[in-house]
Design a protein that fits this description.
peptide transmembrane transporter activity; single chain; Dipeptide-binding Protein, domain 3; D-Maltodextrin-Binding Protein, domain 2; SBP_5; about 25% helix; about 550 residues; 15 helices; about 20% strand; SBP_5_dom; Peptide/nickel transport system substrate-binding protein; four-stranded antiparallel β-sheet; globular; alpha+beta; 21 strands; Peptide/Ni-bd
């Protein structure tokens, strides 16, 4: 991910190109004010950040979606962008966009949510020395190169010079509630992308002291933080008095932070949590038998992959990467570890997306003899023990060990697991390019556009491109797709780009996930969106 999108609350299951939603129990009207109130206690992992410009991981976005709101949200049924704080988002040429903002919204400190709030936020995210993870999402705005830091000699660790500019030339204020965005090149998908939380507005007080704002956010959404972020303990948010839109349902949401999901499950069993949005794989059958209708399941667009550190000499030859992929029996791992619940991935685009293709990956089918041939052609394995990486406490050990066993049995390469880092540390290791072997990561679309499964992970220099893959032809095809007049016209270009990475395998596709969440007896209405996950702000509690 590292992010997801959409917010939905409906009583029945609604299926569209990208999004489905379901709620369990209680009255069928999720906006029923009579069911509002109470404290919702939810499972959480330690976030990496609470600043929207920096946060691109799931634990962070779970909190940020409740305390910030942006220009655009996504329709539950179609996945199409809809105005949220935007009055309008318009363009005549797909390159120069005019955005008008609804009046009357403020931050929790009283500052106005206006054109300045969005311009300052996007400039802060884009400015290279600020080192914000979501700078990548500003890449299409004119002037991005002038605000970016560059390695002076390409070898590090020399200090990069100050960028030529501190603000994006493509952002211009028209009046208090209007600004224009000039893109470097036409992109018809722009209104879709700005629903991603990284495009949230930022209070001026946060720009002046973003570290303080990371600990005690100054949001503009339905909820505000109570106190400050208690690292590795919890985060509590309460309804915001300054929010002018539809209020959140619970009075308070208590994010209880656990080191691992097993501890979270134990707390749920003990009645200390109301919602556990994920389950330990080994406890799935037990949970299904115990909680019945309060165990929520549905296929998801969550992509699990094994990344290949191309920056490491042992993985530069694509034939090594292809060989490893071809000895992995995905279905057998899914059956043994996940009770057959997931779907083997044979491509990089979620099956529910328009433009996805079945069996697109020729190196995702088990073929030990072909794998041995490829490895031999590459000169054999010379890297010693294969180090397999995953973050701690999320139940990845069992399936990663199965991968290691299959590689060892087929190719004779011994392995060891590296699963000692908590998620925030693990992401830092990824960002710093310090993996010494294949690494587990996941991804879900940040916005409902096919490009979201390709550009953030594999385009040159993208912040989530943890493999460091770079292919000018791939980048060029993405640009051709971006400039198309419609999604349908863009699809052939994106598919050709996907074919390139399916040949080069910067990451090994593993599977598409399936949601398994449980909620307690205190929850009257459980609300889930297949892409945004548990929508805590729309859940209702039984009134005592």
């Amino acid at each position: 991910m590292r992010g997801k999108f959409l917010k939905v609350a409906v009583a029945a299951t609604a299926t569209a190109m990208l999004a489905t939603a379901c709620s369990g129990g209680g009255d069928d009207n999720p906006s029923d004010p009579g069911k509002s109130g109470g404290e919702l206690r939810v499972y959480a992992s330690e976030p990496a950040f609470l600043l929207p410009s920096a946060a691109d991981d799931e634990p962070s976005l779970y909190v940020i979606r409740q305390i910030y709101r942006g220009l655009v949200k996504y329709n539950a049924e179609t996945g199409a962008p809809e105005n949220d704080l935007a009055e309008s988002v318009e363009s005549q040429d797909q390159k120069l966009w005019t955005i008008k903002i609804k009046d009357g919204y403020t931050f929790d400190n009283g500052e106005k949510v206006n054109a300045d709030a969005f311009i300052r936020s996007w400039n802060f995210a884009a400015y290279g020395p600020n080192a914000q993870n979501n700078a990548y999402f500003m890449k299409r705005i004119a002037g991005i190169k002038d605000v970016s830091s560059e390695d002076p000699d390409g070898e590090g660790p020399k200090k990069a010079p100050e960028p030529k500019a501190k603000e994006l030339s493509g952002l211009k204020k028209v009046d208090d509630l209007t600004f224009t965005v000039e893109l470097s090149e036409p992109f018809s998908g722009f209104p879709t992308t700005i629903g991603y939380p990284g495009f949230s507005p930022m209070a001026e007080a946060c720009v002046k002291d973003h570290q303080k704002c990371n600990e005690t956010p100054i949001g503009n959404g339905p909820y505000k933080i109570e106190g400050s972020w208690q690292h590795n303990v919890g985060i509590t948010v309460v309804r915001s008095d300054s929010w002018k839109g539809d209020p959140g349902k619970p009075d308070k949401i208590n994010y209880r932070i656990f080191a691992d999901v097993d501890a979270g499950y134990a707390a749920f069993q003990a009645g200390e949590l109301d919602v556990l949005y994920t389950l330990p794989p080994a406890r799935y059958k037990e949970a299904k038998a115990t909680y019945g209708d309060r165990l929520y399941e549905q296929p998801s667009d969550s992509f699990t992959y094994v990344g290949m550190p191309i920056y490491n000499e042992n993985f530069k030859d694509k034939r090594v990467r292809q060989a490893i992929s071809m000895v992995i029996d995905r279905q057998s791992i899914i059956d043994a570890v996940f009770n057959g619940r997931f779907t083997p991935a044979s491509g990089y685009v979620a099956p529910s997306f328009e433009g996805a293709r079945e069996n697109a990956c020729q190196y995702c089918k088990k073929d030990v003899e072909k794998a041995k041939q490829l490895l031999a052609e590459a000169g054999g394995w010379k890297g010693g023990k294969l180090q397999l990486w995953a973050n701690a406490g999320a139940g990845h050990d069992a399936w990663l060990q199965a991968v290691g066993d299959q590689v060892k049995a087929a190719l004779g390469i011994d392995y060891e697991l590296k699963v000692n880092l908590q998620f925030a540390e693990y992401l830092e290791t990824a960002d710093n390019r310090k993996f010494t072997g294949p690494f587990r990561l996941g991804w879900s679309a940040d916005y409902p556009f096919l490009e979201s499964y390709l550009a953030p992970l594999y385009s040159t220099g993208a912040d989530s491109n943890n493999s460091t893959y770079s292919n000018p032809e791939f980048d060029a095809l993405l640009k051709q797709g971006d400039a198309a007049n419609s999604i349908q016209e863009a699809i052939p270009f994106y598919q050709k780009a996907e074919d390139m990475i399916l040949e080069d395998l910067p990451v090994i596709p593993m599977w598409w996930g399936k949601v398994a969440a449980v909620y307690g007896e205190n929850v009257d209405k459980f609300v889930w969106n297949a892409v945004a996950d548990a929508d805590y702000g729309q859940m209702t509690m039984k009134q005592k």
